[in-house]
Automatic annotation (TrEMBL):
Residues 3-58 form the HTH lacI-type domain. It comes from Lactiplantibacillus pentosus. PANTHER family: HTH-TYPE TRANSCRIPTIONAL REGULATOR EBGR, LACI-RELATED TRANSCRIPTIONAL REPRESSOR. GO terms for biological process: regulation of DNA-templated transcription. GO terms for molecular function: DNA binding. The keyword DNA-binding applies. This is LacI family DNA-binding transcriptional regulator. Keywords: DNA-binding, Transcription, Transcription regulation. InterPro entries: HTH_LacI, LacI/GalR-like_sensor, Lambda_DNA-bd_dom_sf, Peripla_BP_I.
Length: 333
């Protein structure tokens, strides 16, 4: 006798509707990854097959190339992109896909057996074209290529940065500095615009409180944050801002070290607010307040977008922007 959705629902201890939506890859369904995995596992165990749609096993035979613009070393130094990749891998397992990680945009390492590409990082127009030639099933993460016709998963930088400025402003701090990063695509063709820096400038210009001398550029590494903050301390002296927004956690950790070496109290004299909220923000003293970015969810969402494409190759490109939250810790209290 044929296996029904009700059989799976009874075994999984979920509703019939939940089983139907999970097996139809409904991305809007709010259930845990564990529940999805359980439903798929029971469906496979009972050898359930759907009529008029590809069965679970057919959907599961997919190989995704995860093309990371960072090198392995860079990825481990900046846990932001590592967390995105882990999110991709975890969600791929939910659907039974296999993933192949390729670092530093080395497209010559992409095999002929891939079914889709998830490109993680920042890419020049030339690189976008090269990626699109590999497969039509292409999703970008942390790079907004929606205008070029490609599905993209991005983070809200503008509102998040504005909320950090509001956070300091409500506490009576109006001299706010920023340390941000400058980057180029791996082919050195395009300098990557820093949305956090642009949003920071706009937020303070609206308040007539933007001071360009309070804004310094680094390269997203801890050493860069350290050197850049030392430069600010030397150049500004007693005019050093009472608060800094730092573009990522490694730079914030380096800036904290420079302040501590100069015997400038944090948060007493200078408050620090970072971005990304990786585990590094909690492993320094004092712990650093940070904007929490749903990095793993970014990766998972990219896989979900591919599933939609596998079901309907003609589906229009989608742009998904994920929200952020502020996590307050000792560096701003």
């Amino acid at each position: 006798m044929a296996v029904t959705l009700k059989d799976i629902a009874n075994r999984a201890d979920v509703s019939l509707a939940t089983v139907s939506r999970v097996l139809n890859y409904d991305r809007t369904l709010s259930v845990s990854d564990q529940t999805r995995q359980r439903v798929f596992a029971i469906a496979a165990e009972l050898r359930y097959s759907k009529r008029k749609r590809r069965d679970v096993k057919t959907m599961m035979r997919k190989n995704i190339a995860v093309i990371q613009w960072y090198s392995k070393t860079q990825e481990h130094d900046d846990l932001y992109y590592l967390a995105i990749r882990k999110g991709i891998e975890h969600q791929a397992q939910v659907y039974g896909f296999t993933t192949t990680s390729i670092f530093q945009n080395k497209l010559d390492q992409v095999g002929d057996d891939i079914d889709a590409v998830i490109a993680v990082g920042k890419f020049s127009p030339t690189q976008v074209r090269q990626l699109s030639e590999l497969t039509p099933q292409l999703v970008f993460v942390d790079d907004d290529q929606f205008a070029q016709g490609f599905s993209s998963v991005v983070t809200d930088f503008t509102f998040a940065t504005s909320r950090v400025v509001d956070y300091f402003w409500r506490r009576g701090i109006q001299d706010i500095g920023m340390i941000y990063g400058q980057e180029w695509s791996t082919d050195q063709q395009v300098e990557i615009p820093n949305q956090r820096q642009q949003s920071f400038k706009q937020a303070l210009e609206r308040r007539h409180a933007y001071h360009p001398e309070y804004v310094l550029a680094g390269d997203y590494t801890s050493q860069s944050g350290y050197v850049t903050m030392k430069r600010a301390i030397a150049a500004l002296g007693p005019r050093l801002p009472h608060a800094f927004f730092v573009a990522n956690d490694p730079m914030a950790a380096g800036a904290l070290k420079a302040l501590q070496q100069a015997k400038i109290a944090v948060p007493g004299r200078v408050k620090l607010f970072s971005f990304n909220n990786t585990s590094l923000a909690e492993y320094v003293y004092p712990e650093i307040s940070s904007v929490n970015v749903e990095t793993e969810l970014m990766g998972k969402t990219a896989v979900d977008l591919l599933v939609n494409r596998f079901q309907d190759a003609h589906q229009a490109a989608q742009r998904i922007e994920l929200g952020t939250t502020l996590v307050e810790r000792e560096s701003t209290k």
